[in-house]
Amino acid sequence: MSRRFSLVGPGRVGSSLALALSRHGWTCDAIVAGANNGSGIRELRKRFPSSKIIRSLSSLGSDFDVLFLTVADGKIFATANELVKESGLAWEGKGVFHASGVVGVKALIGLKNSGALTGAFHPISPFASKFSPERAEGIFYDFYGDPRAVGIARRLASTLSSRLILPGSERERRLLHIASVIVSNFTVIGARAAENLLAGFVGPDDVGELIRGLLSSTANNLSNSTGGKSLTGPLARGDADVISSHLESLENKPLLLQLYRSSSLLGIDMMIREERDPNRRRNLKRIKKLLEE
């Protein structure tokens, strides 16, 4: 297999993945830009000077081994079917991968029936902006699809100095995606919620530095401890009085109170499973009842 690919949908994931592969010797033959305006087309031509920048699927040539379908999740099925009808290409043996973490591989059924090796090649990384190739490198990818395409997925991951996870089912793919959302988005939500709590009496520069310091310490705890041993503060100490005071202080902030209760309950359950001391287990169960009230 040569190292040529094309791309449909140069959004945040697509543009970053294409740039990363291009930097490592892969050739981007064509990019289907779709509804990009004039400035968007000019930017693509600047970033990919050797690639054909086209607007329609019917103009897509066949000079590629892998096609990345990095359109919005809700458009994958329709775009895949349009590719079969409009491109007029011979799909036998070509890899066609979408990059969604939750859309089923069946969304590519039309291409599969036309002979393509279909699958989902999903980067487990947040992409906050376009043209961020560093986000596509040195990360984890998961792949699920045609077993004959696993070798292509491995080669892509290797090119990007990344590791590949092979879920055994669509359900496992969804669980992996949920786990990723919890780590990425819920961390941001918690940090921003903490900033809002402090906004009235701590300066913005100090708030930012405080939050970043806590996140850094927390990441270090995760790296050096396992399970509930990574927890700190009143939960880890089993300090019911402090937790009770926290709940009281959040009574006028129902969403934060709900977040505090549910997160703490998950932590308590983790600690109860791991705790062998009967006295500490009894204390943790008392705190659990307090959080459930």
Describe this structure in words.
- This protein is α/β, with parallel strands linked by helices and 293 residues long.
- An 8-stranded mixed sheet has the order 3-2-1-4-5-6-7-8, sandwiched between helices.
- Helix 2 links the parallel strand 2 and strand 3 (52-54).
- It is built from 11 helices and 8 strands.
- Helix content is 51%, strand content 13%.
- The chain is elongated.
- It has 2 domains: 4-166, NAD(P)-binding Rossmann-like Domain (Rossmann fold, 3-Layer(aba) Sandwich), CATH 3.40.50.720; 174-292, ProC-like, C-terminal domain (N-(1-d-carboxylethyl)-l-norvaline Dehydrogenase, domain 2, Orthogonal Bundle), CATH 1.10.1040.20.
- Helix 9 (240-249) packs parallel to helix 11.
- The longest helix has 29 residues, at 170-198.
- The mean pLDDT is 94.
